[in-house]
Amino acid sequence: YGIPQIIISDNGTSFKNEEVRELCSKFKISHHTASLYYPQANGQAEATNKTLKAILLKTVKENKRDWHLKLYPALWAHRTSIRTPTGATPFSLVFGSEAVLPLEVEIPSLRISLQGILDEDAYREARLSQLESLDETRLDAEQRHRVYADRMCRQYNKKVYERDIYEGDLVL
């Protein structure tokens, strides 16, 4: 994964301490913090947290104290599910191929079966081809995300109408 150039975090004490400052200094990482008392400034992380909470609420039933045992499966589900805005899974945008699902290990899919047929050189060539097209895949996902965001904005703006407010008008 490598060392990030930038870290964006909330203003929690777990991120604002000497240890983190030293780490950022040592590895030349720029540390930015989201606005205080304004979680929307860190919108993507907040949206992911909302999704993970929804998954955990559905999977943690009787004993709510064991939520941490369900966290990794929830993260796996989130990372291997296609996101509507990008048209891709987060996993594929990071690694350049889809994850091998647990079910595919038990009941081999066509994709897994085809990988088994390839010799080492052919598999290496196919994998290099996937990785070479990864930048293009990411750019496509970014473009789809922009189109999706514009569409959502237009949908929202259909419901909003402009009001003229003048001095002396009562407003709530």
Automatic annotation (TrEMBL):
Molecular function per GO: nucleic acid binding
Biological classification of the source: Eukaryota, Viridiplantae, Streptophyta, Embryophyta, Tracheophyta
Organism: Taxus chinensis (Chinese yew)
Domain Integrase catalytic: 1-98
Protein name, per record: Integrase catalytic domain-containing protein
Coiled coil: none
Single GO BP term: DNA integration
Gene3D superfamilies: Ribonuclease H-like superfamily/Ribonuclease H (3.30.420.10)
